[in-house]
Specification:
single chain; mainly alpha
Length: 83
C-alpha cells in the first residue's frame, strides 16, 4: 500500500474527517487564512512605512571638541588649570 495507491488516498480521506471532525478542519483552515491575511497586512504596512520615511535624512551636526568647554566636565582637567 504505497502513497501512490488509490486505496491509500481513499482511506486517508475517510480517516481524517473522522479524527478531526468537519468543524475542526474548517476552523483550522480559517485560522490559516487569517494568519496569511495578517502577514500580508503587516508586510504592506512595513512597505508603506519605508516609503513614507525620508529617503535623505538630515545629517546630525557633530560638535567640534575644540568648541566644547572642558572645565565643566567632571574628572577631566582643563587646560587652563595649573596642577
Amino acid at each position: 500500500m504505497g502513497a501512490d495507491s488509490l486505496w491509500h488516498w481513499i482511506i486517508v480521506i475517510i480517516i481524517v474527517p473522522l479524527l478531526f471532525g468537519r468543524g475542526r478542519v474548517s476552523d483550522l483552515m480559517g485560522d490559516v487564512a487569517r494568519g496569511i491575511n495578517e502577514y500580508k497586512r503587516a508586510m504592506s504596512d512595513d512597505e508603506n512605512d519605508s516609503r513614507t520615511a525620508s529617503p535623505n535624512p538630515e545629517p546630525i551636526e557633530k560638535k567640534d571638541d575644540a568648541q566644547t568647554p572642558t572645565s565643566g566636565r567632571l574628572g577631566s582637567p582643563s587646560s587652563d588649570q595649573t596642577p
